[in-house]
Amino acid sequence: MTRTEQNSEHILHVYFTRYSSWGVRVALILDYFQIPHTKNSYGWNPAVAPPARLSGGLLPVLQPDPTDAGFLIGDSLAISEFLAEQNPQLHLWPKDPKLRALARTAAAQMHSGFSTIRNTYHTNFLGRYTGKIPINEAAAKEIQQMVQLWSKARANTKRRLQELGEEDEGFLFGAFSIADAFFWPVLWRFRSYQLPLTGISEDGLKWVVKVWNDPIIKKHSHDFFKQAQNPLTIVEKYENIFRENPEIEYSQFSEDWTFNPAEA
Question: Residue 3: CB partners within 8 Å, gap ≥ 6?
Fold first, then answer.
């Protein structure tokens, strides 16, 4: 049995988002911009597995029309672009052409890059690792690239919005956009694995604080704790991935956790 959240219009087929960085991007975009949808959630347990018609199990998949089961859009970036095209009044990308181009560039970098971070530090929103977390040279390089990307994005955005005389809401490119949705899941990895934010700019750190304290994102996060109450959502290979390393302890974050920038 799958978990279904009713709202009408689009149907989002997604793996339980507590482990899915790909799926949660789209789920957050739909929620943040209040785009009507139904969310069907699946897992790796055969009892909650997605039907084979959904791209052979590769999720997320968006079914734009609930009456047309043959029209399916796969891939989080493709889905996001479709939603942006269908809802131009919502400005899923920045309104300014320059910032829009920069935001698309950043999202594409996240979508196709940072493979060492992805493959070493698996997505697990609730998971918390403490101790001597291994960070090899390739991972350290990508962590620095990530921090620099956030810092540069905020610097460019701040400067551009000042030129335009427009309000800066503090997200990567001003107002919340697809770009923030694409980078939010990697913030989980920084939190879960205690990855360093060394070298991040003051404005970059303010963005991190902004994201972790945004009321819509915090509300969205509560769903991961609800998912955890269902044992069918558990994916053992993403739980305690360093279990054979006695220098690393594994636990889970509490629902009332808050980000402390002084500890970054």
Answer: 16, 40, 41, 48, 227, 230
Query: How many other C-beta atoms are found inside a 10 Å radius of the C-beta of residue 163?
Result: 10
Which residues neighbour 216 within 8 Å (Cβ) at sequence distance 6 or greater? 31, 32
Q: pTM, whole model, 2 decimals?
A: 0.94
Q: How far is CA 178 from CA 55, 72, 81, 133, 184, in A?
A: 23, 20, 9, 30, 10
Contact 244, 129 (CB under 8 A): no
pLDDT band at residue 4 under the 50/70/90 scheme: very low
- With a pLDDT cut of 90, the percent of the chain lying above it is 90
Q: Which two tokens stand for residue 34?
A: 């209040």
222: pLDDT strictly greater than 80: yes
CB 117 within 8 A of CB 64: no
CA separation for the pair 195, 231 (Å, rounded): 28
Starting at the earlier edge strand, list the strands of the sheet with 37-42: 3-5, 37-42, 10-15, 61-63, 73-74
Q: Answer whether 168's CB lies under 8 Å from 157's CB.
A: yes
Which amino acid does the sequence have at 37?
Answer: H
Question: Alpha carbon of 221 to those of 10, 116, 168: distances in Å?
Answer: 21, 25, 24
pLDDT the model gives residue 8: 54
